[in-house]
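Please, structure for the following, as tokens.
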Amino acid sequence: MSEVSVSENSKFTLSLKSIITIVIVTSGFVGQYYVLSNEIAEAKRLPESEISRSELDLKLQLISKTVISNAEKLNKIETQIEKIEGRVYELK
């Protein structure tokens, strides 16, 4: 392996292409920083959510009841399908 030593007399060069790439990438990061900070500031100015905890709980309860009701309906439909399949099988 070759050893690299860095001292006061060391020189390193960058091509124009490398310098332009570094400037573009850096400016991209700076631009994204300002966009993000503006979005954060705007989000702070927006009103808070108008849904209270109790309203959310009521909506969740309604959703749960609906899901359970749909599950019961599906079970009834499955039972009916099984009966129909049995009758069709008997007719064959």
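The chain is about 75% helix and 0% strand. The chain has two domains: 14-46, 48-92.
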